[in-house]
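Worked example 2:
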Amino acid sequence: MKPSAGYWINKLQLTRHIEGGSYIRTYCSPLTIPREQLPPTHKGPRPVSTAIYFLLEKEQFSAMHRIASDEIWHFYYGDPLIVYEIDPSGHLTEHLLGNNPEAGECFQCIVKAGSWFGSKTKEGSDYSLVGCTVSPGFDFDDFEMGVRETLLKLYPQHAGLINSLTR
């Protein structure tokens, strides 16, 4: 029998994430990259890498946001998750995370630094348990939540998606 989302939230000690869903930071590299060795998009020194567990339930979504680093998503358990990525030129990529390669699912995907992205479970799913690894490491100073009106002006061709993944 498949464990519930609540089981994973309790077992992994997940808390609510500001973009939606639940998470916990599981790793922060003790090695640090000095600010002057990073691109100008990073506002200070950063750990070499960070990692989290992230869980989305069927009624939740991860709101459109962007960060200053590449983010590698890893599928762990549950149902497929769709990660929507809009690159700066407006190209949309739908990454389907899951454990069934015959259905087009993959165990990992990469969202490039500076892309807008959000996610939700595939229709008919209960929850998705995934992980995210960020390098250079994640810091909320490098996080920007998407504003619906701004994103609609930049990418009107993706209005339906933007409306569904912003608050």
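The chain has a mean pLDDT of 97. The longest helix spans residues 5-11.
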